[in-house]
Amino acid sequence: MYRADLALVGFGNVARRFAGLLAEQRERLARDHGLQCRVVGIATRRHGSVFAREGVALDEALACADSGRLAAAGDACADAFEVIDRLAATESSVRVVVETTTLNIEDGRPAITHVERALAAGCHVVTANKGPAAFAYRRLRGLAAQHDVCFLFEGAVMDGVPVFNLVREAMPLVDVSGFRGVLNSTTNHILTALEDGEEFAPALARMQAQGIAEADPSLDIDGWDAAAKAAALANVLMDADLTPHAVARRGITPADASAARAACARGERLRLVATAERGSDGLVRAEVAPRTIAATDLLAGLRGVQNALILHTDLLGDVAISQLSGSLTMTAYALLSDLVAVRRTLD
Ligand SMILES: NC(=O)c1ccc[n+]([C@@H]2O[C@H](COP(=O)([O-])OP(=O)(O)OC[C@H]3O[C@@H](n4cnc5c(N)ncnc54)[C@H](OP(=O)(O)O)[C@@H]3O)[C@@H](O)[C@H]2O)c1
């Protein structure tokens, strides 16, 4: 049995659901995977940060996080870096930083700096934040290898549906030469609502009300979220060295309503499609843009918040993986599955 000490850097929607899932799955984690977890640190931006060597009282932390009294659950810390440093200073044999701070589309910081600090101190990192893999994958992969720890980010693309784990674990020797996919739920919901005769603004408002749109919905509709996912996929699966700013990007606007309806009337569909391919010069180019596609295309069948990714490979041809529903639990599950992946490296 291994005991893992966890620090939650970011304690918003995803981290709180992760804390709940950890409790719900405690017995199975121990029985099936020989893993006992306890949360020893929590860091937020505006609601305080805390560290407790013997474990943070999660019920108390959940109850008081929003009122800014998080520090009551243990020793108050100045910020996320102090929480990471205190985790790193423990003698626990398995130390994991669970990074779920907000995506910063400018440069991926401070998430990248949190990940760097943790890896360099010998802590494993699991994250649902797209920033680290989208902006700094090569450097962070190198740092993780240097310190013999894991850097995992399954929740960054398609929530808990295993995209990165699928290729890493189940597709040895396979070369991914490109991909195309619908990777953003909010824009796909809006485009299918437009096809059904609805207006842009209420369709977007529904995604905001359901907590599916990013806190700043322009990240979704301007294509930034899909561009960050495309950069992360290209960096990890195709050994590219992109950032979201290197992805040619066009989002959707209310003016796309007529194109969406006209495509539908012709038996086609308008979808926000992310693509990447390796050119003859060896460089990977990625793009996000609204594309008119045939109704028989797998991506055309995606309605509402559904996503799918088609990988172009040498040994397996085209491999498709779909996400037919989405939820916070699925994103939290991604972190849990990464935690089990960390456990598997320990024997
Ligand atoms: N929600 C989803 O369905 C989903 C799905 C896939 C991936 N993701 C990704 O998962 C991450 C978390 O999403 P979420 O919905 O949980 O976001 P959220 O509810 O906004 O929570 C973000 C958390 O990060 C904290 N934070 C921000 N900057 C920080 C800093 N510098 N130091 C310490 N803490 C900081 C915030 O603290 P304060 O509250 O004090 O500001 C908050 O606790 C994001 O990167 C998102 O893109 C989310």
Write up this protein:
The protein has 347 residues and is an alpha/beta fold. It has helices at 13-24, 26-33, 58-64, 80-88, 111-120, 131-146, 164-170, 185-195, 200-209, 218-221, 224-238, 257-265, 328-344, and strands at residues 2-9, 35-43, 49-51, 75-77, 94-99, 124-127, 151-152, 176-182, 248-249, 268-278, 284-294, 307-313, 318-323. The model has no long low-confidence stretch (mean pLDDT 95).
Tell me the layout of helices and strands:
Blueprint: E1 2-9, H1 13-24, H2 26-33, E2 35-43, E3 49-51, H3 58-64, E4 75-77, H4 80-88, E5 94-99, H5 111-120, E6 124-127, H6 131-146, E7 151-152, H7 164-170, E8 176-182, H8 185-195, H9 200-209, H10 218-221, H11 224-238, E9 248-249, H12 257-265, E10 268-278, E11 284-294, E12 307-313, E13 318-323, H13 328-344
Parallel strand pairs: 1-2, 1-5, 5-6, 6-7, 9-11
Antiparallel strand pairs: 2-3, 3-4, 8-10, 8-12, 10-11, 12-13
Helix pairs in contact: 1-13, 5-6, 6-11, 8-9, 8-12
The structure holds NADP nicotinamide-adenine-dinucleotide phosphate.
NADP nicotinamide-adenine-dinucleotide phosphate binds next to α1 and α13.
Number of helices, counting only DSSP H or I runs of 4 residues or more: 13
How would you describe the oligomerization state of the chains in this entry? single chain
Largest sheet: 7 strands, mixed
How many DSSP-defined strands? 13
Global outline: globular
| Mean pLDDT over all positions | 95
Structural class given helices, strands, pairing?
Answer: alpha/beta
Strand content: 15-25%
Low-confidence stretches: none
Helix-strand string: EHHEEHEHEHEHEHEHHHHEHEEEEH
Q: How far apart, in Å, are the first and last alpha carbons?
A: 10 Å
